[in-house]
Every structure is written in C-alpha cells, then in structure tokens.
Design goal:
The complex is a heterodimer.
Chain A: H1 18-31, H2 39-62, E1 74-76, E2 82-85, E3 91-94, E4 99-105, E5 109-122, E6 130-135, E7 138-142, E8 146-154, E9 157-166, E10 169-173, E11 179-183, E12 188-194, E13 201-206, H3 246-265, H4 269-282, H5 289-302, H6 307-320, H7 327-341, H8 344-357, H9 364-368
Parallel strand pairs in A: 5-6, 7-13
Antiparallel strand pairs in A: 1-4, 2-3, 3-5, 4-5, 5-8, 6-7, 8-9, 9-12, 10-11, 10-13
Helix pairs in contact in A: 3-4, 4-5, 5-6, 6-7, 7-8
Chain B: H1 10-13, H2 19-27, H3 31-53, H4 59-72, H5 83-107, H6 118-121, H7 128-140, H8 146-157, H9 162-169, H10 173-190
Helix pairs in contact in B: 2-3, 3-4, 3-5, 4-5, 8-9, 8-10, 9-10
Classes of the chains: A alpha+beta, B mainly alpha.
C-alpha cells in the first residue's frame, strides 16, 4: 500500500490553466448570464401568476359576483340604490341611504343586520342553509323567498315592515305569546315599535314552496300585526318544505312548544293539542317531543274523549323517552284508556306491563279494578 | 483533495468576500460576483468534471453547462455559504445528463467515442496501488450505465461516503448502495487479469 494518503482524485486532474478558465468564463458570458434581479424571469413569473388571477377576475365579473361582500362587510348605499349579490347567489338591493351588515356568510347560515333603510332580498334557496335578516327587534328568516324588509326610524319609534313578493313567510311577534302571522306573496306586515319598549318580533323560517305563490290575490295590506292568526296556520305547508337548518329547527320547535303550553294553560286544549301534534310530526327528534306526546295524550284522554288517540300518544311518549319521569303515569293511563275502550285483553296486558315495571307503583291499586278486575 | 468538501477551500480562506456574500451579489445580477464565484470554484469543478467523464474533450462544455445552471437557479440556494457543495451537486446532475445523452447516441450509432485511456487520465505521480485502482476503474467506466459510473467515481475516486454520494446524486442511500454493488460486480467482471494468471 502507498504511504501517501491523498485521495485518488488528486491523481486524476485535467490541466487547468488560467487561460482555460478565462476561455470558459468568456463562453459562459457569451451564452448569457442571468439578468440583473432576474427581471426577465420575474416578468414571466409575474405573467404566469397574473394569468389565473385575471381569469378568476373575469369569471368573477362574468358571474356577477364582483360585489359579493365578505364576512363582516358593511354595505351602504348613498344617493342611489345599489344591488349586491351574495356568495350563495342571493341578490340584495338596497334603497338609497340604507345600511346593511353581513354578519355571517357561511354555507350553513347567512345572517344580515339591517341598520337603517329598506332592502329587497331575492333569496336563492339553498338546502340546509338558513338566511336571516335582523331589523332592529325583528328577525326575519327566509328560505328561497323574495321579500322586502324595512327598518325605518321614526320619531315615534321604529317601523318594521316585511313585504313578501314571492313564496310564503310567517312572522311571529315574540311579545304576544308567539302569535303568528302568515304572509303569502303580495302580503305585507308591519309594526311600529315604540322606542322605549320595542317588542321583539320574530319571523319564523318560512318554507318556500316549490312554486312561488305568484297567483295569490294580494289582499289589502293588514293595518298592523296585532291581528291574531289562527294557531293552526303555523305549520301549514311544512310537509312540502325543505328541512330547515338545525338552528331553525330548534327555534321552530321551541316556539311551537311554547305556544302549545300557553294554549293549554289558557284552556284552549284543541289548539294546544294541534300544536303538540305539529311539533311531533315535524320535529319528532326534538328534545321536547316526548313531553309533547305525553301532554297530547293527557289532553286527548281527559278533554277530547279520545282514548284511542291517547294510547297512541302515550305509546309514542314512552318510545321517545323510556326512562322519563312521566313513564309510570303514561303506562297507567294506557291501561285506563284500553279499559275505557273495552279492550280487555290489551288492558290486562298493559296493566301487567305497568306492574312489572312498577310493582309498588302509585297506580297499582287503582289499576287493580280495571280491565274487569284481577 | 475532495471535490465536495464543505470546509473552506484555500481560495476561500484568502481575504476577500465570502461565498455567501458573492452569492448574494450574484443573485442581484452583479456580474463581477458571478465571475468571482466561477473563478473561485473553476479548478474544483473542472477537476470533478474531468473525473466524472474520464476525458478532457467534453470538460469545457460540461463546466459551462453546470455553472450556468447554477447561476440560473441561484435563488433556490438556501444556504449561500454552501455554494461549493451545491455546485458539485449540480455538476454531478449535469454530468449524468451528458452521459445519458452520450450513451443514447452511442446506442443509436450516432456517436463513436474512443474508450477512456487510463494512462491519459491518471497522473504519472500516482503511487502504484492508487494507479492500479484507478486504472481498473477507468478501464471499465465506459461500459457502465451513467448512474453506476457516477456513483463509482464519487465513492472510489472522490472518496465520498455513501450518504454523500446519495446527496449529490439526489438518490436514496439504498439506491446508491445498489448502484455501487453493481459497479463492484462490473469492476470484478471486466478487470484485467493479472499477468501470468490462467
């Protein structure tokens, strides 16, 4: 082995002279050195970057989305009305001197707040997306509807107006135990809210029918919102509607439940039963559904002389909440209802069910004499 | 002298701007800095090109190609102080392209290159054992695929470790090991038999 520890590379070298290096550099220069600041390349890069931006801008304009406001935008009109298109395609036209804030703009919900003025909304129906407009104390929820919402500040108070041009809406005043006004196309609703104690007004999410209700004859505008609509109007047409969004569902169910309870306490048991039934039909998964079913059963049994309907309601209540506090009463009432109907076998079966679940139950003695005795 | 050392070369040790400052100026399009970088590393990349190709006639072109490629991609160099090692990597990749092109032309019958003459390549001052090893390598180099010959030269001639070879060739360590294993097999297969052997 060699004692020399130089690597083999040191024995494989070309003849490198200064003249050769100078020639190489001259050749490199001749082939073109990178431009100062790589300006040429930068131009190309800029062009490459700008091209998609330009395309996007063109498409944006072409789709009429140029004015799509973003989350938190404040839209204000000066002397002339302006129209803006929201991200979901809904069109919003502001009258002159109008302020509107886009509070939330998400796939699941669009929330706007009308500061002052009048706005026309042409809401594109999007399944599962709630569209709400707050106008002072009024909150209007819409689904695929064209309507005007105005909040006009007057010396005597704030005038809130809702005018439906297409679709159907419902307006509920929260200060009047949930009274509901249903508005079809061409109808208007308005309320003057005193400055000091402006009542809260809520317009429920209104199911937009598949076909706009354009043929409805426009009735004369109601003088005010004081007119109490029939309670049964609340959920008319719901079966044909798109499923409302989760927050809307909760709000709707809560409103119906409250209205039902008010009616029950007021002795308006037919209305209460109708409201409980509405909630059960349209929001069967709501947390209040089981208690609704139980209350419905009690009303049918005690007030409406409908033991068959009561059995159905109690059974539904037990199915919805098998461990609820009312279960013992529901089971006992089923026994009594079957007894009233003369269904002896079913009565005995129900009683056996009750006694197996509550051997020492408070109704055990009373039930002993039912179903034709033991 | 290892071509891809990261420690400062004697030139870098001289008073003057560091590689990093020259790179910064060269990026800004300063011609003097580009030339300074070239002159500072010219001998190193000429030597590496010569050893990778095994002949002198294509060295000038390879050096020019590699240095121009380096200057044009200077903005992608993250550590300007590591310019030397980075330039070596570019030289290895450029040599790979050259060898592939040459191999393809030879296969198509469009090029007829003379085989490497080890006596021309190896210095007469090389010790006998080193000379024998280099002679064995350069005697069979032209018969190896480009990647295999590059790995062999970087490992056995430049004295790089396997991970260093992998880094310069932009390959995984295991791939380099396979290439080197293949190179060793070829080396054994084509090595000239000692005089007097059957």
């Amino acid at each position: 082995m060699s004692e020399d520890h130089r690597p083999p590379a040191s024995y494989v070298s070309p003849e490198i002279t200064d003249a050769r290096i100078a020639r190489q550099w001259a050749a490199i220069e001749q082939r073109g050195l990178p431009a100062p600041l790589a300006l040429g390349r930068l131009r190309w890069r800029f062009a490459l970057l700008a091209l998609p931006v330009l395309l996007a801008f063109t498409l944006w304009n072409g789709l009429g989305l140029r004015h799509a406001p973003t989350h938190g935008s404040l839209i204000e009109s000066a002397e002339e009305p302006i129209t803006v298109r929201l991200r979901d395609g809904s069109s919003v036209t502001l009258d002159a001197q109008t302020r509107l804030k886009l509070v939330r703009d998400q796939d699941s919900a669009v929330e706007l707040e009308l500061g002052e003025g009048r706005v026309r909304f042409d809401v594109t129906h999007v399944r599962g997306r709630s569209f709400t407009v707050a106008a002072g104390p009024a909150l209007v929820s819409v689904v695929g509807t064209q309507l005007d919402v105005a909040r006009l500040v007057r010396p005597e108070g704030t005038l809130v107006q809702v005018a439906v041009r297409r679709g159907v809406v419902e307006v509920r005043r929260r200060d009047q135990d949930g009274s509901v006004r249903r508005l079809s196309a061409g109808e208007e609703w308005s309320a003057l809210l005193p400055r000091a104690d402006a009542p809260k007004v809520l317009a429920l999410p209104i199911p937009a029918p598949e076909e706009p209700v354009a043929q409805v004859a426009a009735p004369p505008p109601p003088a005010a919102a004081e007119a109490e609509p029939p309670a049964d109007d609340v959920l008319h047409g719901v079966d044909t509607l798109q499923e409302p969004s989760a927050p809307s569902r909760v709000a709707n169910a809560r409103a119906i439940f409250a209205r039902a309870n008010v009616a029950r306490r007021a002795g308006q048991l037919q209305e209460a039963a109708a409201a409980y039934l509405s909630l059960l039909r349209h929001y069967p998964r709501d947390a209040r559904a089981s208690i609704c079913a139980f209350e419905l059963g009690r009303i049918r049994m005690d007030a409406l002389s409908d033991p068959g309907g009561a059995i159905e309601a109690f059974t539904q209540a037990l199915r919805l909440s098998p461990r609820a506090g009312f279960c013992e009463d529901a089971l006992a009432r089923i026994v009594v209802a079957h007894d009233a109907l003369g269904q002896r076998a079913a009565c005995q079966k129900a009683r056996a069910h009750y006694l197996s679940a509550y051997p020492q139950g408070v109704h055990a003695l009373a039930l002993a004499v039912r179903c034709g005795g033991r | 002298m290892r071509a891809v050392q990261t420690k400062p070369s004697p030139l870098q040790a001289l008073p003057g701007p560091s590689d990093a400052s020259l790179v910064v100026s060269a990026r800004a399009g300063e011609k003097w800095a580009q030339e300074a970088l070239f002159r500072r590393h010219a001998r190193m990349i000429n030597g590496l090109a010569y050893r990778l190709l095994g002949r002198d006639d294509e060295v000038d072109d390879l050096v020019q190609d590699a240095f121009l490629a380096a200057l044009r991609s200077l903005d992608r160099l993250q550590n300007p102080q590591a310019f030397s090692a980075w330039l070596c990597s570019i030289m290895v990749r450029t040599a790979h392209k050259t060898l592939r092109r040459r191999s393809m032309l030879t296969r198509l019958g469009l090029r007829r290159g003379a085989p490497i003459d080890p006596d021309d390549v190896i210095s007469r001052t090389a010790p006998p054992d080193v000379c024998a090893e280099l002679r064995a390598i350069y005697g069979v180099l032209d018969r190896m695929p480009p990647q295999v010959r590059l790995a062999l030269v970087l490992h056995r001639v430049e004295g790089m470790s396997v991970p260093e070879v992998a880094e310069h060739m932009a390959l995984s360590v295991s791939t380099v090991k396979r290439r080197l294993s293949l190179a060793e097999k070829r080396l054994g297969k084509f090595a000239p038999k000692p005089e007097g052997s059957p």
